[in-house]
Design goal:
- By secondary structure, the chain is an alpha/beta fold.
- The chain has a single domain, classed as Rossmann fold (3-Layer(aba) Sandwich), CATH 3.40.50.
- It contains seven helices and seven strands.
- The strands form two sheets. Strands 1-7-6-2-5 form a five-stranded parallel beta sheet, sandwiched between helices. A two-stranded antiparallel ribbon has the order 3-4.
- Helix 4 packs across helix 5.
- The relative contact order is 0.26.
- It comes from Gemmobacter lutimaris.
- This is DUF1937 family protein.
Length: 162
């Protein structure tokens, strides 16, 4: 089971000579992802800390995070990389929730969203972490990177330092 509770020591993950260095590319960008991706890229973008201020979901902040994540998907598309970003799908589904009768899904339920996004994660051949503010603190980004490293899936971090 892929869950959302995975604290990460980002310094260890990003260490040039660290135990994960063969799988992790620090300071990456869409062009590098295109050179190393053979299949679908999974974009692990932050959401929860920004969309849920004081544990209350806010549509304006959700829209902002969805737009920032979608921008990163578009940058990959411009490099001819097929990419999926569950953050965008999650946010947009929640934006549409008022139009669906009985749509009673908590947008901030990490365990629900971890289970929901797990099939996307397991289908992808590379995990991309864009340098969007809050990526280091996002439990879902940590879950995605932990899963990737545990399953020998390459991780491309756009940030240069933790």
């Amino acid at each position: 089971m892929v869950t959302a509770n995975h604290p990460v020591d980002w310094r260890r993950v990003m260490a040039p000579q660290g135990s994960d260095s063969a799988l992790v590319r620090v300071g990456s960008d869409p062009a590098q992802v295109a050179r190393h991706c053979s299949g679908i890229a999974y974009v692990a973008a932050p959401y929860d800390a920004h969309a849920g201020q004081r544990r209350k979901w806010q549509i304006d902040r959700s829209t902002m995070m969805s737009t920032l994540a979608a921008r990163e998907v578009l940058r990959l598309i411009c490099e001819h990389v097929s990419a999926i970003c569950p953050t965008v799908l999650r946010a947009e589904a929640m934006h549409a929730a008022p139009t669906v009768k009985d749509a009673v899904i908590n947008p901030l339920d990490l365990e629900f969203w971890a289970r929901w996004s797990a099939p996307y994660l397991t289908a992808c051949g590379i995990v991309v972490v864009p340098d969007i503010r809050g990526w280091q603190r996002c439990p879902m980004v940590a879950r995605d990177v932990t899963w990737a490293l545990d399953h020998n899936v390459p991780v491309h971090l756009y940030a240069g330092a933790a």
